[in-house]
Amino acid sequence: MKIGFFDSGIGGITVLSEALKMLPNEEYIYYADSMNAPYGIKPKEVVKKYIYNVVEFLVSEDIDVLVIACNTATSIAVKELRKIYDIPIIGMEPAVKYAVEHDKDMRVLVTATDLTLKEEKYQKLVERVDNESRVDSLALPKLVEYAEDFIFEKEEVVSYLRKQLEPFDWSKYGSVVLGCTHFPYYKEYFREILPGHVEILDGNVGTIRHLKDILDKNNRSYGSGDRKMTFYYSGIKDEDNSILKKYLNKL
């Protein structure tokens, strides 16, 4: 089984890492469009062109299924892409529904990119599940830039997060949703800042469970033996997967 992964950059590696645990023997091809990252602060039509170009490339590599491991790309293009291609296409969605249902009496803070939070897909998701207006949203674009630049220094990242999270009365919140696949790299820093009762949620495991369900429903056989991994960084093949390994080691 050849599974394609795509993200605006290296954020989707946080999703891929879950796939490697749950489906360890498949063949994977990952495309990080880091030359054009971050998507979240760019005009929608510009980002759409990036997305279509990458997906066309991955499909030309004869993938059996595509995981769009990027909340921004999913919100902008997944609906149209499913009309164009006849392979299963799995997208990302912030774990808002789970958070709202789980935290019955508490507020929920969804963190993501500017573009994800502005998109109709996200707005409709919140409208559908948030009947009591308990969901708040916060854009954290700097985290994407930090991850792409391999900046994980605690002092710099924590300082940024403290400043962004300081205005909230955390006694009223039950969870923080990491609605960008770059953000889980910094989960431990969120945990250090936030009170113990606040859960930190992302959709990575749920996405890979969905991937496995789709493979099962299509009666697709799982791979066996050593898995094969191909990694493209801004369109250039990383022959020894050194970039991929560097980021996997941060998880």
Number of domains: 2
- State the CATH class of the largest domain: Alpha Beta
How far apart are the first and last residues' alpha carbons, in Å? Answer: 25 Å
Task: State the CATH topology of the largest domain.
Answer: Rossmann fold
Structural class: alpha/beta
The share of residues in extended strands comes to 15-25%
State the helicity in percent bands.
40-55%
* Strand order, largest beta sheet: 4-3-1-2-9-10
Number of strands: 10
Rg, Cα atoms, Å: 18 Å
Indicate the mean pLDDT.
94
CATH architectural label of the largest domain: 3-Layer(aba) Sandwich
Q: Please, how many helices?
A: 11
| H/E element sequence | EHEHEHEHEHHEHHEHEHEEH
What are the low-pLDDT stretches, counting only 5+ consecutive residues below 50?
Answer: none
What would you say this structure looks like, in words?
Keywords: Cell shape, Cell wall biogenesis/degradation, Isomerase, Peptidoglycan synthesis. GO terms for molecular function: glutamate racemase activity. Substrate binds at residues 7-8, 39-40, 71-72, 181-182. The active site is at 70 (proton donor/acceptor), 180 (proton donor/acceptor). This protein has helices at residues 13-22, 44-60, 71-84, 96-102, 114-118, 120-129, 141-148, 154-165, 187-193, 204-217, 242-248, and strands at 2-7, 27-32, 65-68, 89-90, 107-112, 135-139, 173-178, 199-201, 228-233, 236-237. The protein is of the alpha/beta class and 251 residues long. A six-stranded mixed sheet has the order 4-3-1-2-9-10. The mean pLDDT is 94.
